[in-house]
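Holo model, pyridoxal-5'-phosphate. Inputs:
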Amino acid sequence: MNYPLKPAPTGATTTDIPFNKACLLGNEMVYIMECLDQGHLAGNGAFTKKCEQYFEQRFGIAKALMTTSCTDALEMSAILMDLQPGDEVIMPSYTFVSTANAFLLRGANIVFADSEADTPNIDVHKLEALITDKTKAIVIVHYAGMACHMDALLELTRRHNLFLVEDAAHAIDAYYKGKPLGTFGHLATFSFHETKNIICGEGGLLAINDPALIERAEIIREKGTNRLAFFRGQVDKYTWQDIGSSFLPADYVAAFLWAQLENMEKIQARRLEIWQQYYELLKPLEEKGLLQLPHLPQGASNNAHMFYLVCQSLEQRSHIIDTLKKDKVQAVFHYLPLHDSPYYQPRHDGRALPNVMRYADCLLRLPLFFELSAEQVSRVAKLVIAACVSYEMSGPER
Ligand SMILES: *Cc1c(COP(=O)(O)O)cnc(C)c1O
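Output:
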């Protein structure tokens, strides 16, 4: 089926190759129409259940609950761990604001940790020193879908009796030693925002791996009521049981998502090809010491969420971005350090987080989306190489 609507790539008017373009597989509208025909538009309809079962069966998650966003799934996690004002939550500074906001909203203090030298993931070896008697949880982000060091993290969180939450927004269909990411923490959160591998515009999912948290999670998602148990026929009326909010997406959002999940293999295979093509074409730059390519940590798989480079300096990165922009190719940097943000800087304890600062200045993301052709990848890679060469040649005058 052809779509009446095609999403416009971001910056379409000025860009030949945008950084991202939402990917459509063909059945999104078909399933949305099916959902409308069925007449169940609110949450928890047939498509919501299909998507949740997919996650439970494919990845071995005890209970999957669709949410309106990964942000909401993180907020549910914060409610589920019963944070008290003054409790501390440790997380990376190099992440999206939602990772931190969700816990701040419950009154927690955030303790930001540095990234590793080798990857933007949280540096597990620097965490023990940050744990106090107020520490309640460690929240990790599998950056670019690359697994954090889960063996060491699980050992640490078990020894200190801490909650472990995986912000798996980048990490669908990614693995650590063969086990899916999103199945290690007590809780894990996925995103289907249009910039991720599998999308529905705005959407998310809470993965609950600790069965003791399931019943309460269902209540929190339904505005603090046991409405789900009511619809299952387990209670004869539904009542206010707990705090909660409106975290459940419409079923036609899940219908869109279902069309994507059905095509998981196809999407992932194409993304991996693109990733691999970039890697091969740009390897010579790393061999010449001009910049760094991504290196998968030990035990981590690659879900091709992102292809990033680590430049030598902010200056070199700006030169590459400008060179690509002149040729209408959009490459973008990523997170601004949360510990150094206008909101959090006055609250941060002053510790220097040098690796975070380096990724903030030097990390660059290249276009990567399902429809990107081999010719386009090759054109982007050539431009990056040309930019590195011209940057080196301009050396003395810089
Ligand atoms: C995208 C993203 C989020 C937020 O996801 P939404 O679904 O847009 O709320 C949270 N954390 C990380 C690391 C992300 O990349």
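The longest helix spans residues 264-287. The chain has a mean pLDDT of 95.
Archived with the compound record.
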